[in-house]
Write a structure and sequence with these properties.
217 residues, mainly alpha, 2 domains, two-stranded antiparallel ribbon, 9 helices, elongated
């Protein structure tokens, strides 16, 4: 078992070098596809097939492809994920909360909602512009700054979304095998809560960065 995990770590490092040197992919592609796929394959091989054998090339290729599809699924179910965090972070940041001088969540507060809304409505020349349209306008302007951190925040958010999706899929699959192990449910649900909370925070961090960047122009 010790050798297996050492070899797995080596494979991940090998994968990074392979993608960087040959395919020239960005770090988000590596994290959201390769690592996620390798982890999923590892869990399936151990729990369902009790198989610890490794074939580096096939292992990495299958891991990347699987991670790619997991990433696609996470994008597809994004509206459902928004529902379970109380709505789209971009819209909630532009929605005043009664009795509070900030919008967002307690961990990620935005104090300039009214200012951002007025500025965006003025630019769009529409006092009834939807929050989605206003955020799209802010996003367009924020992306025009080559020195902004928007792409980094977006990559972190997307990676958190993929991690959440992967955790949900793994939880469902593993539960079919360990459904009678009581501590599996405690540990599994706790992990789901952790990644769900992180996904929510990263969504608000990204949306807030877009609006702050827009206001700074």
């Amino acid at each position: 078992m010790k050798y297996f995990w050492l070899q797995t770590a080596y494979n991940v490092q090998y994968c990074f070098n392979l993608n960087i040197n040959i395919m020239e992919l960005k770090y988000y592609d590596l994290l959201s596809n390769t690592i996620i796929g390798v982890v999923l394959i590892t869990v399936v091989k151990i729990i369902w097939f009790n198989d610890q054998s490794l074939d580096v090339e096939v292992y990495i290729a299958c891991g990347y492809i699987l991670g790619y599809f997991i990433n696609a699924i996470s994008s597809l179910i994004e509206p459902v994920l928004y529902y379970f965090i109380g709505g789209k972070p971009s819209e909630k940041l532009l929605t005043p909360q009664h009795g509070l001088d900030w919008t967002g969540i307690r961990k990620v507060k935005f104090y300039e909602a009214m200012l951002a809304t007025k500025k965006l409505q003025s630019e769009l020349d529409d006092n009834n512009a939807s929050r989605g349209r206003m955020f799209a306008c802010a996003m367009r302007h924020s992306m025009s700054n080559p020195n902004s951190r928007i792409l980094d925040f977006n990559a972190q958010y997307a990676f958190s979304r993929t991690i959440l999706t992967s955790s949900l899929i793994l939880f469902i699959f593993v539960s079919t095998r360990l459904y009678d192990v009581w501590y599996f449910w405690i540990i599994g649900l706790f992990i789901i809560w952790l990644v769900w909370n992180r996904f929510r925070e990263k969504g608000f961090y990204f949306a807030r960065e877009v609006l702050n960047e827009y206001l700074a122009k």
